[in-house]
Amino acid sequence: MHVTEKKFSRFVSSDHPLPWLAPLLAMLVTFTIYPLIYNIWLSFHEYAPFKRRLEFVGWDNWSTLIGDDRFWASMGVTLLYFAVVLTIELILGLALALLLDSEDFGFGFLRGLLTMTLVVPPAITGMMFLLMEDPEFGVITYVLETLGILSSTQPILASPSTALMGVMLADIWQWTPFMVLIFIAGLRSLPQEPYEAAMLDGASGWQIFRRITLPLLSKVIAVAVLIRGIDLFRMFDYVFVMTSGGPGTATYTVSLYAWQQTFSFIKWGYGATISLVTLLVIIFIANLFIYLAKVRW
Amino acid sequence: MPHIEFNKITKDYGAVNVIRDLDLAVEDGHFTVLLGTSGCGKTTLLRMTAGLETITGGELTIGNQRMNEVHPRDRDIAMVFQNYALYPTMSVRENIGFSLEVAKMSKGETAKKVNEAAAVLNLTDFLDRYPRELSGGQRQRVAMGRAMVREASVFLFDEPLSNLDAKLRAHMRLEIRQLHDRLKTTTLYVTHDQIEAMTMADKIVLMKDGKIEQSGSPDDLYDRPATKYVADFIGSPAINFIHGTIEAENGTPVFASVDIRYPLAPDCAAQPGQAVICGLRPSDLEIAVTGDISATVMLAEKTGAEQNLHLKAGEQHLIVVADRAVPAPTGQSVDVRINTDRIHLFDAMTEQRI
Fold first, then answer.
1. Which residues, 6+ apart, have CB-to-CB distance to A206 below 8 Å?
2. Pick from B208, B233, B258: which residue ends a domain?
């Protein structure tokens, strides 16, 4: 242990660290730190269209935001979307990973097939599902109507009660395989011996899953949840393509709202404020999760 | 009464044959050691007993019941793995109690059994630790504890001591054997270490290339090795081999090699003219004033109470275990006396005992 530590520290240390750090530092400053600071600065300003310049407005944007029902509605939609989709993708992903983790003939092909959804651009996926959920000729509409789950008078994406589910469907289709891939990689890296020991100890398949697999896989699950969770929180493409936030505000996510305020209404300062709040919520939820899930990096 | 029986057991991995037509009976309550070099099939045999490997051919019975198709969890077997196979996310307490937990034993009963096992194995202070926080010896004891609380009908050990240092290994040998003497559970123990086998076993099964070379008590294997391979494998320092032929001299058979001539017992079964290998254990040779072989000391290795003398008799290399008081400076000429009763003769072609 000591030897590797020494080796490692020699590897990462240098008498002249600055030249080595400079490229990374420049990237970070240009693409992360400067935009963040600019965003904070922007949230205290607003674009004045007639004067064609930014004007200092103090805490105006922040106080507007607190009283903005549209914003809170979009935050609600985002949180609901986040919670439902993440849960389904997690459970479905884990189940599929367990099923596909096999060396038998054909499983490699199936695993490869599963990754196909990931190469489709999300906007295209949105278009696909828009067509498949079309009330006239959509295949999903047809199947759901045939099964009696959906009444023929209720278009999926145009009804407030089902529109968000319609969007979720696209997300789940596209991103569950991502979870599957991470989980399969995780399952593959697990030691084999505890499983043999557990079998001899008399554990059933379910007991082995609950007491051995799940705890061993917890770090991998935590990483997958974190990556997908952050992604879900800033979901934009599907609603933009499929519903534009409608009907009403049923599918209006925070990202869509921030985009609308910034680029449709030219309220740059307000858009910046919304995105900053989104960032704060993500940081809060992520850290809460890291704390609760006892993830140690 | 045999408890575990292997009848014509065969194991293939694809086209590779690992074990062929192996017959073995493991007596009830005995401590049986499967001994052999790596790749001889001993671990495969053990894993087939546990149900962790499928059996290609033949029949395995435990307690007169066919086990070939029985799931590992239903075989009533406890196993200690080479790398311990502890559950990394469970504490020592949970590790030891896991089999009881899945058997739906009451919390109080489980705690009692776990505490008992922990007390026997000196693990009481470590019950709330995790495997990663334990030393190798402690992990080994947790693995033992896990097997102990099971009260299974068969114990399997897969080289459980190979990751421990020499002192701890000697200590654990004793503990495992004492545990067996107390529990009297039928035990199959795999090792490549002949000292482990000699010190612990009721019966040693020495395997070579997927077949049983010889099985019997430790004394049987040491005193009457069936083949040259067995003679070579058992005993430390290793047995001396001298190639030679049998000659008849005045009606008595004589072993003759380039450098050594030695009369054999008249009832010796070897035929005049037969090419043989003579096996002489280092402890059956003695430095004497007048002996049977004249040799020169090449090196004296002190091992404490004794010394291993490396000698040269002509071109023949010999090791003799002598008392450390015997003066043997390098280059000195010595005489070696052979204990006639303890000569092992093997046919040079078949390497079978004569």
1. none
2. B233
Gap between the Cα atoms of B81 and B139, Å rounded: 11
- B333 forms bridges with which residues in the sheet? B296
Which letter does DSSP use for residue B228 in this model?
A: H
Q: Rounded to whole angstroms, how far apart are CA atoms B17 and B41? A: 10
Domain A69-292 has CATH 1.10.3720.10: yes
Q: What are A's interface residues with B at a Cβ cutoff of 8 A?
A: 191, 193-194, 196-204, 207, 211-212, 215-216, 218
User: What is the ipTM, given to two decimal places?
Assistant: 0.81
For Cα atoms B307, B310, B311, give the angle at the middle one, nearest 5 degrees. Answer: 130
Ranges of each domain in chain A: 69-292
Nearest CA in chain B to A207: B102
User: A48 falls in which pLDDT band (50, 70, 90)?
Assistant: confident
Give the model confidence (pLDDT) of A197-246 as tens digits: 999 999 998 999 999 999 889 889 988 999 999 999 989 999 999 998 87
In a domain, B137, yes or no: yes
Residue of chain B with shortest Cα separation from A200: B73
Domain containing B317 — which CATH number? 2.40.50.140
- What sign does the CA torsion over B191, B195, B196, B200 have? positive
Q: Do B87 and A202 touch (CB under 8 A)?
A: no
Chain B residues within 8 Å of chain A (Cβ atoms)? 50-52, 71-75, 77-79, 81, 83-90, 98-99, 102-103, 146, 150
Q: How many domains does chain B have?
A: 2
- Domain shared by B194 and B250, yes or no: no
Residue B144 belongs to domain with CATH number: 3.40.50.300
Residue among A200, A203, A216 minimizing CB distance to B89: A216
Nearest chain A residue to B96 by CA distance is A201
- Helix axes A139-146 and A122-132, enclosed angle (nearest 10): 40
Residues of the domain holding B113: 2-233
Which residues does chain B have within 8 Å of residue A191's beta carbon, measured at their own beta carbons? 85, 88
Average pLDDT of chain B to the nearest whole number: 90
Q: Of the given ranges (A11-20, A117-126, B2-11, B320-329), which has the lowest mean pLDDT?
A: A11-20
B354 in any annotated domain: no
Residues B133 and B107 reside in one and the same domain: yes
Confidence of residue A276 (pLDDT cuts 50, 70, 90): very high
For the segment B46-91, what is each residue's pLDDT rounded down to a tens digit? 999 999 999 999 999 998 899 999 999 899 999 999 888 999 999 9
- Average pLDDT on B104-126 reads 90
| Dist CA B26 CA B29 (whole Å) | 9
pTM: 0.79
